[in-house]
Design brief:
It contains 8 helices and 3 strands, in the order ααβααββαααα. By secondary structure, it is mostly helical. It has one domain: Orthogonal Bundle (Arc Repressor Mutant, subunit A). Strands 1-3-2 form a 3-stranded antiparallel beta sheet. A hairpin with a 7-residue loop joins β2 and β3. α1 runs antiparallel to α8. The relative contact order is 0.15.
Length: about 190
């Protein structure tokens, strides 16, 4: 069955590219303007809504691995956006809190892309929401992406990267894609040089 194109192949691929592009643009905006990655913003927002929590509790709330969240917290702490302290009742537990600077950053940052999407999704009839859920689950299965870490925020690039690394990643990805399309154009024209 490999290589059998359907009438929908191009439209589906174009839609997936547009989704990916929207995620890339949002990631660039966060990285460039707020010096944050998407997962860093998600963690800050979660902490802003809680008095304090452990990194394990935070990881569970934002659906990221403990190791990923630890890297994110290290970067946020280095920027003095969060603080960590030992629990006075149980010294084995490290409590994480958002700082005033972190709270101000959350208040000035745009809403996570997934919140905008969620609002629009909620405006659809429940049957349409169920159809989208079913179809996207099937797309994930078809792309063999079931085992990927699913951040609760749509984002591109490494989840534990600092903002500059995300911009570099996205720029490299865009340049690679542009080079690939140039090579495809040359190949279609029969140009070997």
């Amino acid at each position: 069955m490999q290589g059998m194109a359907t009438q929908f192949d191009e439209n589906i691929l174009r839609s997936l590219r547009r989704i990916s592009r929207a995620i890339d643009l949002y990631s660039r905006k966060l990285a460039g303007r707020y010096k944050l990655t998407g997962p860093q913003l998600v963690c800050l927002r979660q902490l802003a809504g809680a008095e304090e929590m452990t990194s394990g509790e935070l990881a569970a709330e934002v659906a990221l691995s403990q190791a990923t969240v630890t890297g994110i917290l290290d970067r946020l702490e280095a920027r003095e956006l969060i603080g960590r302290r030992r629990d006075s009742r149980d010294r084995r537990r490290v409590m994480v809190t958002i700082t005033g600077a972190g709270r101000r950053l959350v208040e000035s940052a745009p809403p996570p892309l997934h919140n905008v999407f969620s609002e629009r999704l909620a405006g659809l009839p429940e049957s349409d929401q169920a159809d989208i859920d079913r179809v996207l689950a099937r797309v994930v299965d078809m792309m063999e992406a079931e085992e990927l870490d699913a951040a609760p925020l749509m984002t591109a690039g490494p989840t534990t990267a600092v903002a500059g690394e995300v911009v570099e990643f996205l720029t490299t990805e865009q340049n690679t894609a542009a080079a690939g399309s140039t090579e495809e154009s040359k190949a279609k024209k029969g140009d070997k040089g």
